[in-house]
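Write out a sequence, fold above all:
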Amino acid sequence: MPARQRFHDLHSGDFFIMPNAWDVGSAVRFAAMGFPALATTSSGHAMSLGRDDQQVGFDELCAHAASLVAAVDVPVSVDSERLFATTAAGVAANVATLAAAGVAGLSIEDYDPATGAIDPLEPAAERVEAAATTARAHGLVLTARAENHLYGIDDFDDTVHRLDTYRRAGADVAYAPGLTDPERIRTVVTATRAPVNVLLLPDGPDPAELAGLGVRRASTGGRLARIAYDAACSVAGELSAGQGPPERATTEP
């Protein structure tokens, strides 16, 4: 079965976890562990290039996505930020470009780093509609993200209204990264009547709890990349301090 159809089918089945890979090596390892789908992470990808989040260009993202798609046999969804366009037409064109890279899904955010603010609802919904129309034409799963809670805006009613609006504009999956309260998560599931993605966080529900709340999908964002880099730096720091070889070192060069 083609990857895009498998990815669609996952969203009408049971709860699943979709870890975010930051390079080909992490993607290959996660796929080998049996996860049914993977996603990219904008912050993790930026880390792998020595940059901050939102400092990677669209051409670089497309090349990165294509490399992960080529390396694994599971569907890959792309963390595509704002889809790198200021207009609805530009959004649609960039969805088509990512489709050509072989991805099975992608996301669109309503935060604009150029203004440092959340988009007004009407233009945000127009962007989602443009992305959804093109995604549907290529068989992609579109995730619409309401970014309030990542940027210190604790307006839950607005988040729910936005996700419901994005769903009605054609998004397949609703996602509000940063939500950790079980009742709020349950409300999103009920209000949007859509498959909901939740970001796994240390102070949030665990996978079993999320499944019980009716969540369809969970992802890890840039967390796994940060854990990997922090662990490597910790061991490197021990070496720098003259504490000898790391305990987990292998014999490989």
About this structure: The mean pLDDT is 96. DSSP finds ten helices and eleven strands in the chain. The longest strand covers residues 105-109.
